[in-house]
Amino acid sequence: MAALKTPLIAPSLLAADFSRAADEVAAVEQAGADWLHLDVMDGHFVPNLSMGPQLVQALRPKSKLAFDVHLMIAPVDPYIEAFAKAGANHIHLHVEAGPHTHRSLQHVRDHGVKPGIAICPATPPEAVGEVLDLVDMILVMTVNPGFGGQKFLTSQLDKIRTLRRMADATGRDIRIGVDGGITARTAPLAVAAGADVLVAGTSVYGQDDYGAAIRELRTGTSIPA
Questions:
Q1: Is the pTM of this model over 0.90?
Q2: Burial bucket for residue 23 (CB in 10 Å: 0-12, 13-18, 19+)
Q3: Annotated catalytic residue within 42, 68, 136, 179
């Protein structure tokens, strides 16, 4: 399936004011966000700590947005059920996080959640080739995972192009997401390469007007029909 003509915008809660988490979720929903991206980090797989299933569960009744949960943790299998029960609509796990990625993705779908595969900058696109029949989305890290506010790695554009071709060749409806350094300047580059989901942290939550920020990302990246 081809990329969406207009990309989905998924603000990352990691960049929000955690002391006002419920209000921050409501604010981006009202501002026109498509999904809410939740970055889960364990201080082991990536050098930072963030949130657990309790926060996802607490926020779930506060929003109708799809909760796009990105598990940057290893091992990942023991936590899939908890995040599924907490209210995740999508769960992305890293191809680098364990030896049995195929089984882990099956585990996600068994819990009624859409599975996604995430891939770090140093990992070649071919690493996800054997699980494309299981995923609904590929999340390309355009920074090294762990911290927000990093600069977009243009070296990942060729990877996005390759993964778009690989996804389209399956004939399945697979979204290509990008996560890291997405701004009004870099978003068009990612979309032109084949991305159709933009995870945006400080470029939404770091702005005074969330609605204007989301519109700028979306309208600046619209793909002609």
A1: yes
A2: exposed
A3: 179
